[in-house]
């Protein structure tokens, strides 16, 4: 298999894919594929409940939070969040850290009043603004931030602690590209959301973890499918859920537990990213624009000394079995996405290739 550095859909753990292949035609003696099962049948209901239970264990999700398995991607959450939490309220606070935060802000602005309370645009989105600089409104409906900017490679390595501030404003977080990469204190958040196709499982599943008191508050009440209450009241089975994606996500959750859970993953992820950043810092051929303390452990963008060499770099990597290293079309350069499923050998191989390329083209 190739080493796939895609930002998403991204590589999945090989052990998960092997198990899914083994179970493809006959899941646990049921005589059918999970894909073919009724979502109301006892086999699938068991898979669904187990996936939720394992996720709750991995993230230590408190009992007063609902886990919702939805569709529509993180992009639909850009709209569902204001529809459910902002309607009927004066305004919401957003932190602008790059491409994904901007998209969340754009959609929220169509649905209500938005205050951009902090931004790193002044330095080309190369850092995570300090909490002390967030001009928070104690009456905001919520505060939204993007824990990991997948394109810019900027990650918050701290949780904005709003507990000392007046207003008891819920914290809302787009964790699409770093969820499950490390332990996180869910109780600090009102709502967390993530598209599945990076660290959870296949595209088509969207995860929402939401504190119960935030559900069912919108005035006027949202349309049925856009209302968190609909999905919370029906265990994410109001309509047909993305059953196969949930099954694969469940296998990923079990794989994560076998690795030692999120504390173990954090250690491995820090080691993997460390190998890449250490080399980038030693090299005069490559560079990474992000402030050191805010560098993402999941997405590592870098540029070559001469952009004219980009194509040769990508072709050479491909020839050695390393794919999807091209940076996002909006920023250019390269990007290595090294989510949970990327083995450390993949990162070592990439660094060895980068060294060799720098010598031959330097
Ligand atoms: N937010 C972040 C941080 C992302 O990286 C992405 C996708 O890459 C999205 C939102 C959009 O997710 P989706 O494509 O699942 O709608």
Automatic annotation (TrEMBL):
Enzyme nomenclature, EC number: 2.6.1.52
Cell location: Cytoplasm
UniProt keywords, alphabetically: Amino-acid biosynthesis, Aminotransferase, Cytoplasm, Pyridoxal phosphate, Pyridoxine biosynthesis, Serine biosynthesis, Transferase
InterPro entries linked: Aminotrans_V_dom, Aminotrans_V_PyrdxlP_BS, Pser_aminoTfrase, PyrdxlP-dep_Trfase, PyrdxlP-dep_Trfase_major, PyrdxlP-dep_Trfase_small
HAMAP family to which the protein is assigned, alphabetical: SerC_aminotrans_5
Similarity remark: Belongs to the class-V pyridoxal-phosphate-dependent aminotransferase family. SerC subfamily.
Molecular function via GO: O-phospho-L-serine:2-oxoglutarate aminotransferase activity; pyridoxal phosphate binding
Pathway noted in the entry: Amino-acid biosynthesis; L-serine biosynthesis; L-serine from 3-phospho-D-glycerate: step 2/3; Cofactor biosynthesis; pyridoxine 5'-phosphate biosynthesis; pyridoxine 5'-phosphate from D-erythrose 4-phosphate: step 3/5
Reaction equation(s) it catalyzes: 4-(phosphooxy)-L-threonine + 2-oxoglutarate = (R)-3-hydroxy-2-oxo-4-phosphooxybutanoate + L-glutamate; O-phospho-L-serine + 2-oxoglutarate = 3-phosphooxypyruvate + L-glutamate
Gene Ontology biological process terms from the UniProt entry: L-serine biosynthetic process; pyridoxine biosynthetic process
Aminotransferase class V domain ranges (all copies): 3-350
Record-listed L-glutamate binding positions: 40
The record's free-text note on cofactor binding: Binds 1 pyridoxal phosphate per subunit.
GO CC, alphabetical: cytoplasm
PANTHER family referenced in this protein's UniProt entry, alphabetically: PHOSPHOSERINE AMINOTRANSFERASE (PTHR43247:SF1)
The UniProt record lists the keyword Amino-acid biosynthesis: yes
Needed co-factor(s): pyridoxal 5'-phosphate
Enzyme class at the top of the EC tree: transferase
Main location: cytoplasm
Pfam families registered for this protein in UniProt: Aminotran_5 (PF00266)
Subunit structure: Homodimer.
Chain positions found as N6-(pyridoxal phosphate)lysine: 198
Species of the source: Rugosibacter aromaticivorans
Name of the molecule in the record: Phosphoserine aminotransferase
Function: Catalyzes the reversible conversion of 3-phosphohydroxypyruvate to phosphoserine and of 3-hydroxy-2-oxo-4-phosphonooxybutanoate to phosphohydroxythreonine.
């Amino acid at each position: 298999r190739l080493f796939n550095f895609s930002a998403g859909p991204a590589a999945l753990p090989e052990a998960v894919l092997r198990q899914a292949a083994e179970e493809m035609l006959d899941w646990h003696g049921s005589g059918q594929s999970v894909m073919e099962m009724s979502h109301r049948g006892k086999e699938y209901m068991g898979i669904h409940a187990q996936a939720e239970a394992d996720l709750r264990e991995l993230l230590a999700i408190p009992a007063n939070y609902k886990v919702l398995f939805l569709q529509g991607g993180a992009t639909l959450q850009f709209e569902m969040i204001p529809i459910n939490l902002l309607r009927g309220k004066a305004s919401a606070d957003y932190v602008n850290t790059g491409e994904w935060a901007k998209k969340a802000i754009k959609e929220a602005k169509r649905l209500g009043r938005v205050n951009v309370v902090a931004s790193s645009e002044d330095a080309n989105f190369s850092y995570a603004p300090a909490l002390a600089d967030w001009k928070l409104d104690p009456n905001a409906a919520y505060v939204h931030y993007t824990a990991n900017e997948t394109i810019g490679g900027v990650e918050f390595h701290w949780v904005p602690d709003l507990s000392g501030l007046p207003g008891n404003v819920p914290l809302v977080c787009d964790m699409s590209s770093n969820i499950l990469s490390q332990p996180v204190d869910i109780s600090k958040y009102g709502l967390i959301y993530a598209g599945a196709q990076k660290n959870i499982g296949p595209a088509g599943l969207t995860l929402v973890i939401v504190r119960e008191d935030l559900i069912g508050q919108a005035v006027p009440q949202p349309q049925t499918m856009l209302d968190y209450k609909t999905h919370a009241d029906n265990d994410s089975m109001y309509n047909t859920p993305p059953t196969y994606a949930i099954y694969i996500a469940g296998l990923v959750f079990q794989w994560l537990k076998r690795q030692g859970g999120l504390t173990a993953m954090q250690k491995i992820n820090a080691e993997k990213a460390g190998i890449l950043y250490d080399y980038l810092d030693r090299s005069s051929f490559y560079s990474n624009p992000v402030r050191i303390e805010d560098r993402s452990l999941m997405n590592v963008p870098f540029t070559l000394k001469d952009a004219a060499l980009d194509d040769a770099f990508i072709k050479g990597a491909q020839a050695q079995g390393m794919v999807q290293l091209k940076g996002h079309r909006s920023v250019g350069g390269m990007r290595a996405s090294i989510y949970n499923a990327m083995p450390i050998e993949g990162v070592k191989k990439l660094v060895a290739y980068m060294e060799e390329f720098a010598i031959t083209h330097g």
